[in-house]
Every structure is written in C-alpha cells, then in structure tokens.
Design goal:
Length: 302
C-alpha cells in the first residue's frame, strides 16, 4: 500500500468517479484505476460498488475511508512540520507557569498558540514558588511566567501586572474569627509547597507564623480543601472571585492576615536566543502585558 493509492482511494470517494478523480490528481484514468485495483487486491477488500454510473463506497470502503482521511491528515501535518523545521520553526516550545498566574491571561496565550502555531508542540509545566525560575535556568523551559525570581542577572523580564492574593476561608469560619481571634491559630493554613527541586525551603508563600500548616503540592486541591472547611489560605483573586461573590468564601482581613499584591513577570533567559515561534509568542505576550490589568475590586474587602 502506498500514499498514492490512498490518495486515489480518497479522490474517487470524494469525486464519485475514477475519471473525476484522475482529473483532480492530474493523472491518467488507467493509472488511477490500476492503483485502486491493486490496493483492493492487497487489502483483499472491495472498496467501491461499481454497479451504477457513479461509484459508491461499500460498507467496508466506508470504514476504511474514515481511516484513510486520518492517515492523509497526519501525512499533511508531517509535511507541515518538516517544512517548518527547514526554516527553523521549533518542533516544541516549553513554558513554565506559576500556578498563581491568572487563568484569563493564560487562556489568551493558549488561544494565540492554538490558532497560529499548529506545527509546534506546546508543553506547559505548572510550578510553585521557585519551580518556574529553576526550569528556565536549567534550560528546561523557553518562556516562564512567575512572580518569584531570585537570579535576575541571567533573566530578561517584563512585568505583566500585579496580582492579588486573598486569604480566604469558609464564610462561617471567617465570621467566627470576628469574635474568636484564635480561630486562625487553631485551624490549619493550607500551603502549596515549593516545586523547585534545588530549593532549600519547601515552605510556601504568605506563611502566617501563628497558624499550623498543611503542605500540599497542588493549588486545585488547596482550593477544594478551603471550600470544604478544612482550613484557610491565600489564593489568586480571580480564581475565587465567584465563590467570594456567592458567599461561599470570605476574605480574611485581620491584624496578621491581610490580602497581598505581588508582581507577575514574563521571563526568558538572556543567554539563549528564542526560535521564531517562541519569539513571536514572546512578543504577543508582551503586548498582552501592556493591555492586561487585574481588577479584583469586587472580590476584596479593602
């Protein structure tokens, strides 16, 4: 079986005749006929019913036609990727994104990538604290989005916006704290630990020293634990705005526990040049930085 035979199979099925298929394929009718007969012989399956003027797929032909279309599409993708490689387009781009990155900002980036860079594979790692920077410095990621940086000397940075972290808990727990100042000493603070492998500290950001901590490795589980009343913790504002507005969660604003604002950065290594797709993506994200603002006024108490 050859690609030419598959192309003939698909063309005949679409055009309804060998003659029309030959015209589309820019081949002679006998050549197309011979190719399809050879294919049927190799498969030991009759692909077309030739009893009428317009040839039609048999039941077996219908099933194989769907597969043939999938193979044809994969071949086209293979050609697109190989052509891209010839002009330097990267086969893969890796990003490391801190889990505090607002979802709305991330979705704009993914939408851009999905529309314009289908020949390049996108790999995203979600990290905590020093994890994203570590991926960049270890050459494991091309582009990084994170609030947490230490080694500025090896990184080009662009500020995206200031993100707000809200200390939240179940409304009943927060209301109780108004009359009982020891509430947030007794119940645990849910903290996501540092994902950096080489970090000396595994403790998360925004620790309240008066509270006991539960260390976990996932922001989604952290939110679910807080929603179910197992503790309180800091979460990025846009990720909990609906729950706060619905009254499921309340923002804590006490002497020792308050909302925090931290800058979010777009980062790349200044020691390695980005490829053409990564460069275009970087420029797009930079433009989004200029237009993006984090407005959390409806979810705050200050």
């Amino acid at each position: 079986m050859t690609l030419e035979q598959l192309e003939a199979f698909i063309a005949i099925a679409r055009e309804g005749s060998v003659r029309a298929a030959a015209k589309v394929l820019n081949k002679t009718q006998p050549t197309v006929s011979a190719g399809i007969k050879k294919l049927e012989g190799e498969l030991n399956v009759q692909l077309f019913n030739r009893d009428s003027y317009r040839v039609a797929l048999t039941e077996e032909g219908e099933a194989l036609y769907t597969r043939a279309l999938m193979i044809s599409d994969q071949v086209e993708q293979f050609k697109i990727i190989s052509k891209g490689m010839q002009i330097g387009i990267e086969p893969k781009i890796s990003m490391a994104i801190d889990s505090l990155c607002p979802l709305g900002f991330l979705l704009k980036i993914i939408e851009k990538f999905n529309k314009e860079f289908e020949q390049t594979k996108l790999e995203i790692d979600f990290e905590v604290l020093g994890g994203a920077e570590e991926k960049l410095l270890n050459k494991e990621s091309d582009i990084v989005i994170t609030p947490f940086l230490e080694d500025y000397s090896n990184i080009d940075i662009q500020k995206i916006c200031d993100i707000k972290l809200l200390p939240v808990g179940m409304t009943c727990l927060v209301k109780q704290s108004e009359t009982d100042c020891q509430t947030f000493v007794r119940i645990p603070q849910i903290v996501v630990k540092n994902s950096a492998k080489e970090s000396k500290s595994q403790i998360g950001y925004g620790i309240n020293e008066c509270s006991r901590q539960w260390l976990i490795s996932d922001h989604m589980i952290k939110k679910e634990l807080i929603l179910n009343g197992f503790g309180w913790g800091y979460l990025e504002a846009s990720s909990v705005i609906n729950e706060v507005n619905d009254g499921k969660l309340s923002v804590i604003n006490s002497v020792n526990i308050k909302p925090k604002s931290i800058p979010l950065y777009l980062c790349r290594s200044n020691k390695h040049a980005l490829g053409p797709v990564a460069t275009e993506l970087w420029e797009f994200i930079t433009q989004q930085c200029e237009n993006f603002s984090c407005d959390y006024r409806s979810a705050t108490t200050d």
